[in-house]
Amino acid sequence: MKGLFKRKKVITKVKICPNCGIELPLHVKNCFSCHTKVGKIDQYGRGKKPFDWIAYTICIFSWLVFIIYFWWAFLR
Ligand SMILES: [Zn+2]
């Protein structure tokens, strides 16, 4: 009876795009349909979105430039 409570490993041969939900082969890094980056899959076979450092850096940098410009233009 021991075996009854053993958890079965879910083996998935596809991963699901986190953005549009399309099924993709495991080795694919970008979605065919929406071109979102698809990372490793979670236990549900859903691809994780890799953390986009470049986009965050650009966003923070552009805010910094804006704040510095604002200070330079109006608050000096
Ligand atoms: Zn997609």
Walk me through what this model shows:
This protein is an alpha+beta fold and 76 residues long. It has one domain (10-75). It has one helix spanning 53-75, and strands spanning 14-16, 23-25. It has a two-stranded antiparallel sheet with strand order 1-2. Strand 1 and strand 2 (23-25) form a beta hairpin. The model has no long low-confidence stretch (mean pLDDT 81). The structure holds zinc ion. The site of zinc ion has 8 residues, from loops.
Q: Briefly note the structural class of the backbone.
A: alpha+beta
Q: Outline the biggest β-sheet.
A: 2 strands, antiparallel
Spans of 5+ residues with little confidence (pLDDT < 50)?
A: none
- Identify the bound ligands: zinc ion
Write the layout of secondary structure elements.
Layout: E1 14-16, E2 23-25, H1 53-75
Antiparallel strand pairs: 1-2
The structure holds zinc ion (ZN).
